[in-house]
Amino acid sequence: MTCRIEFYEFVTSINSCYGPLFWWDLFFLFVLLMSGNYDLTSIICVSITVFGSGLMYLDWKRKQVYYYGKPCYTRQRSQRISPFKRRKLFDQIPTSRYGEFQREGIYNSPYKRSNGDKRFAAKGASPSVASQQAPPKSKSRDSIVKLHIKSFKIPELFIEIPATATVGSLKRTVMEAATAILGDDLHVGILLQGKTVRDDSKTLLQTGICHDGRHCNLGFMLEPKSAQIMPPLHTDDSRLLSSGMPQDPTGHSVSLTPQPEPSDVSPLPPVMNMGCHVDNNVNAVCSLADISTNNTMPDSQALVAVPAITMEALAVVPFHQKSRHSEFLQRRTRRPFSVSEVEALVQAVEKLGTGRWRDVKLRAFDNAKHRTYVDLKDKWKTLVHTARISPQQRRGEPLPQQLLDRVLAAHAYWSQHQAYQQLKIPV
DNA sequence: ATTAGGG
DNA sequence: CCCTAAT
Fold this sequence. Notes:
Elements: E1 2-5, E2 11-14, H1 22-35, E3 47-50, E4 56-59, E5 64-67, E6 70-72, E7 95-96, H2 127-131, E8 157-160, H3 167-183, E9 187-192, E10 195-196, H4 204-207, E11 216-223, H5 281-293, E12 316-318, H6 339-352, H7 357-364, H8 373-388, H9 401-421
Parallel strand pairs: 2-3
Antiparallel strand pairs: 1-8, 1-12, 4-5, 5-6, 7-11, 9-10, 9-11
Helix pairs in contact: 1-5, 6-7, 6-9, 7-8, 8-9
The structure holds a DNA duplex (7 and 7 nucleotides).
């Protein structure tokens, strides 16, 4: 029996973080997840929300982290990790903007300072960055690149296991395959505007990662040495209401073939020197597990603490099953209905009833491409609920009571006449 | 592709 | 909003 493990992606979500240093935070968390005693079969669709509450600023030059304006050092951040939070969304392209770096090079992982953990040192990173005190001449306002890292992406795992194998052996096999990836040549890949950035010597400014305050699509991924770049996914569509970014609705692109697209930002293909080399998987597991277990971490060790981890079930699907080809659909960006939209919805439902959402869509939201008939149906459901609860319990933009009254009236009316009116086709 | 409901 | 069984 050949199985393909899909949805194999480690997802993290870091909110309000500043600074690419979090690559290592994420990676560290990742390693912890992969190496801990957690059932590997559940390391799927898990996301981690770090620093979910509160702003965190990282001063790239000073190597300091600020919380709510109060300075602290990176090792203290472990206190602010919020519980892991499950999320099903992936392939988020973080945005970054502003900022310029005084120095080029990759941030040196603090892990390198911990004894025996040199394995996790950033190989090839400019060694002076982390170890030396940065010149505090910064205005530090423009020197910060704000990154919102929502996910890492790692390639699929392919394993083969006899059909007579036990579930336990399957889990172990998965574990081995996963740790093998970690142990060998895992490194962080960067996608900028859908193209891989491979020139590590360039500054963020030069590569356009922090292009004059404009948003740019930036993606990170964990990839083993031999794996090719996964095709980048779309970015958020918060701005485009109808234009729509060219996405891939069919959702393939899991191909492990290299992307033919030439990379503007990376003429040279040197291996990412952020590669993390773990000499021994077992040792790595142990050391990391210890770190996560012990609250007393050497000040130079882990950046983050790992709270209780909620795991999700792994999606191990038969190889021939027609899954979404290992594509991860992003949860649509939330678009609260405006009052005018509600108005249009109510009016349409008053006319068409509550069983013909497709017609409602065509009638009142035909040009609103982001509103599907399912959305409208759902919205009506919430509208009815909203109209029934007390105004104090309502959230979002206040809706005119008169409008909510119409909702209730229409709901009551069509509840009575639905069966009958279903036969008629008024337009 | 739509509907209808639960998650 | 998502997921999906049932049409």
